[in-house]
Amino acid sequence: MPQHTIGMWMYHNGGGMTVQHQIATALKARDIHTINGLNLNQAVAKNGNILCHGVDMESLDLYFSYNAGQQTPYQVYLYEMLDKSVTCMNSFAAFSLTEDKFRTSHLLNRHGIVTADYQLCHYKDMDAIKATLDAWGGVAVYKPTNGWGGQGIMKIDSPLALESLLSFLYQSDTKHFYLERFVDNDKTDFRVDVVDGAVIGCYGRKAPKNEWKTNVTSGGSIMLREPDDQVIDLSLKAAKICGLDVAGIDLIYDREHERYVVLEVNGIPAFATPEQQALGLDFNGAKVERIVNLIERKVKGTQNEQVFTQKVA
Hints:
Layout: E1 4-10, H1 16-28, E2 32-36, E3 43-46, E4 49-52, E5 55-56, E6 62-66, H2 73-82, E7 88-89, H3 92-98, H4 101-110, E8 118-122, H5 126-135, E9 140-143, E10 154-156, H6 159-171, E11 176-181, E12 188-195, E13 198-206, E14 221-224, H7 229-242, E15 246-254, E16 259-266, H8 274-279, H9 284-312
Helix pairs in contact: 1-9
């Protein structure tokens, strides 16, 4: 019987189930059992227990949550509670930080990592908003503080666009929002995958013709791309500052200031899809191996610490 058991919730689309099988198989060879499909949105929490499909979640040695597309407020709420009893990858603190674009950018700036200029705005403070837009040349990008895949992002480049945004925010009862200076770039970016403090893959994304968003979900296309030392250094530092075990760092090159800018830090960066692998993205194997190594170290290291504590007591 395996001495260790972890729970996993992996996304299904884009080859996710293949990756899940690879991780579980590799862990089994190391005497670590995996229970798949543990979506906390389907869990019941009562009387000191969190149960998901009959599994006592707080009896697990580790919980690996890796599904951005199906997150719900209920699932996230239980994730926060579970993290207090069980080792989670990523930790809830790191996950919740990088779900919030303002908090992420602010922390990175405090540690000397260059991001796009930003401002957290109160929707009633029009003087401050207009002053910021004027300082940025009249062009900014509105981003929801949480979200993924470019959803809800809006370019503000005219008084009419600003008026439309404020009307939308007012109707949705949003009290504050996040603006970024629009960075002059070539409409391509870098996505750097980092696992356990090492870069294991890098590729680029290119915006469609006459568009500016590079996200694949917004119509962007994948391109092969090699990171230079500066891209690697910024990515490793950003992942470490945010406390992520697994991270995807998005960077663009600011042509005006001739420097790389960290745009976003993602706690659930997707593996390469079968279609992307056919184009030459071949980092999945290295990513799986490094994740498995990290899980083994966390699981067996945690138990060793518990045993040692019991012996001392």
